[in-house]
Amino acid sequence: MEARRGLRTAALRPREAGGSARREGRRHVQSRSSVSARTDRLVSAAALVLGALPLWVSTHLPMVDLPQHLHLISALHRLEDPTTLYPQLFAARHELTPYLGYYHAVSLLNWLVPLDTANRLFLSAYVVGLPLSLAFLLRGLGRPTWPALLALPLAYGDNFGWGFINYLAALPLALVCCGLFVRALTRTHQRRAWAAALALCLATVLLFHVQVFAFLALALPWLLLTTPVPEDVDARGVSARLRPRVPALLGVVPGVALFLAWVVLRLGQPSEVETGAPWKAWGPMLSPRNLAWKSFAQNRAELLEVLANLFRDGSDRWPLYAVGAVAACALVLGLVRPAPSPEGPVARLRMPGLVLLALGLYFLLPFDIRGYTYYLNTRYAQLAALLALASLPVTPPALQRVLRLASAACALPLALVFGQGFRAFSREASEWDVLVEATAPRPRVMGLIFDASSRVVRHPVFLHGAATLAQARGGGTNFSFALTPHSPLRYRGTPPPTFPSEWRPQDFNYATQGVAYDHFLIRGAPPSRVFGARLQNELSVAAQAGESWLVRRR
């Protein structure tokens, strides 16, 4: 008996040894997979940090509208502060406006940190949120998420240079909305939760920018038509197919209701029609004389240019070239070594369809709707490029890790190029700091910017310099976004007198406009040419730095 038991035990040992070896091999594979996943996360996190780093290495950021935004946020935050002019000049606009999100978010952060820091935190959230939201959408579609990191260089471009912060902040939210909508359709046991999150996110998009909301008005129906749900396999009839889609449709209702309320309020306001006048309607909203168009050839030429047109030396194109190289490699690999797509034949149309929708808005919309919205169609180039990157073909998993690392590597030239460029601009813009020191508290500043150009960046970033002085000292300017209906603030009474357009300081008339101000910021022209003999009597030069002068009333 003992001998037979020993023989049986000996016979089992090789089998047990083999099973142990297999278990050890599986543990080794899992360990390697865990290390690889951890490495990928660390690399992705480093890329996100590098992507936001340029926002923190300089004193001033090259964004045209940023001084106006910060001045208005400062006024919103200190609306009852008697040490400023804000209580005299401004009042809260108790209306639904699409810019509420950005202004109130930064104002809220301003209770914790200084205003400039609060704004940089907000911009950092936008830069980091762009690839994260794109990854969220891709994961919801069942696609690989590695292309999301390619979005980082696209965070800086024409929209950034103009300072369209509200529009920029709405882009990640729109991508999240698309991801939530898909999940509300396909996640059978969590549809209500995803639909509730969709309702909140969609309403938030509208509170940042209506143009991004307009894209979703096309994108969500497209996703509804092209996204299959699990119940479709056994569904019979229209009602059976509609029932699992109801939560996603209900999640859209609050945002649509909010949009309709805003449209009624906005269109119910009388529009000032003044043909040929800047910032005024030239006729009914959609009349031909009220619409300004770019030609198809101009839009085609600008499509790629506006993705990287910030610096005069063209250095910001290098991170975009790196993105293009990775995308081209992925495209070739996807054709040479295609991987099975996780999507069905109809679902594969989702991302290309979203790209075509964004391109349609870019090519088919007018450039301006005078008196209502400006720089309309060009903004969509950035969105189209983001969606195009997300539409790259699926490659085998082994190649996806290489592509992920290559995508993360694109953040390195981004950090170097934009960090150096922003620091160079900041040195140039330090003339503002000198003039702020010479500005009295509670100033009324007239901006006379004959030359808004920069030696470093291509956009007219010095246009709103007067708002920088006014914000630093709690004063007011001759031009403010409080004049526009999308602002959360309005003027209490008659706005201060000024020339019709901040772009045409040559229309300045001292007798009818200048007497309302005690500070004059001049750039690009000597004060003697602007004020003549008055410079020796009632006015004097308080400071001069770079191309700018500050003239004060004696």
Describe the secondary-structure layout.
Blueprint: H1 2-52, H2 66-77, H3 86-89, E1 90-92, H4 100-109, H5 115-140, H6 158-162, H7 165-186, H8 191-208, H9 210-226, H10 238-242, H11 246-267, E2 291-292, H12 296-305, H13 317-336, H14 350-364, E3 368-369, H15 380-390, H16 397-409, H17 411-429, H18 431-437, E4 444-449, H19 465-473, E5 476-477, E6 489-491, E7 519-523, H20 527-531, E8 539-545, E9 548-553
Helix pairs in contact: 1-5, 1-16, 1-17, 2-4, 2-19, 4-5, 5-7, 7-8, 7-9, 8-9, 8-11, 9-14, 13-16, 13-17, 14-15
- Rounded to the nearest angstrom, the radius of gyration is 28 Å
> What is the strand arrangement across the widest sheet?
5-4-7-9-8
Q: Give the total of beta strands.
A: 9
Report the principal-axis shape.
globular
> What portion of residues belong to β-strands?
5-15%
Give the low-confidence spans. Answer: 1-5, 7-12
The averaged pLDDT comes out at 91
Indicate how many domains the architecture comprises: 2
Order of helices and strands: HHHEHHHHHHHHEHHHEHHHHEHEEEHEE
